[in-house]
Amino acid sequence: MRGYGQYCPIALAAEVFAERWTPIIIRNLFLGCGTFNRILDGAPGLPRSVLSQRLRSLQKAGVVRRTDGGYALSASGHELAAVCLELGAWGARWRSARPEDQDPYLALWMLSRLIAAPRARIVVVFQITDAPLPNRFWLVVSADGNEVCAHPPGFAEDGLVTTDTASLVRWYAGEVTLAAAQRGGGMVVEAPRPVIRELAAWGRLNPYLGVARPEAV
After folding, report:
1. Going by C-beta distance under 8 Å and a sequence separation of 6 or more, which residues neighbour residue 47?
2. Which of 146, 135, 131 is nearest to 198 (CA)?
3. Backbone φ/ψ region at 21: left (φ over 0), alpha (ψ -120 to 50), beta
4. Paired strand residues for 126
5. What is the mean pLDDT of each run of 10 residues along the chain (217 residues)?
6. What is the pTM of this model?
7. With contact defined as beta carbons under 8 Å apart, do 21 and 46 qualify?
8. Which residues pair with 141 in a beta bridge?
9. Span 63-114, pLDDT tens digits
């Protein structure tokens, strides 16, 4: 990235941070995505060649360091991740995603990074009624790591959630509870009561749950 040629801390920071895909890469590393492919999983549309270039640039800037298994944030990178979180709070307060930009896979992937490992594996199928094929995703939560699969993972299924994209995103964002989404008809849950309780708790994990929108300020 071409520099601004200014001796200003904001300009110097922007030379590292304000490049396309860089905040997303930092976010994914902060969420524990320590390998090249895991970073890509949480960045639909990011070309592999661009990710390679950005990682090299971030290493050169001292934000990212190599590990035996892949990549991790440095001390500088963790501090920059805090900037990402604050940027997210601003976005949650003042911006809204357009319907065409709402991605059910990405919502489930982000959710999977927030769920703590359970004592026993839980597999919930999400069927997205308004999405093109493939419109079924398997959210696998286990002590071995959480993942979202576009094909059956080979484990017993514990529940089925049938939902449209908007209702899924609103539930993941904490804008509606699971019970409210079901009452409104946006989500239909078929699962045992303990799994329903888990789902209800997952819908309250979004870090921006308490951010007030402008009309409530």
Report:
1. none
2. 146
3. left
4. 137, 161
5. 79 92 97 96 96 97 95 98 95 90 94 92 97 92 94 96 96 94 95 96 94 73
6. 0.89
7. yes
8. 122
9. 999 999 899 999 999 999 999 999 999 999 999 888 888 999 999 999 999 9
**Are residues 27 and 84 in contact, defined by beta-carbon separation less than 8 angstroms?**
yes
The pLDDT, as a whole number, for residue 214 is 85
Please report which helix (H) or strand (E) contains residue 124, including its range. Answer: strand 122-128
Would you give the DSSP letter of residue 100?
A: G
If DSSP codes are grouped into helix, strand and coil, which group holds residue 171? helix
**What is the rounded CA–CA span in Å between residue 42 and residue 200?**
23
Give the single-character DSSP code of 42: T
CA 90 to chain centre: 17
DSSP type of residue 189:
E
Helix (H, G, I), strand (E, B) or coil at 46: coil
Residue 190: HSE in the Cβ half-sphere, 13 Å Cα cutoff = 7
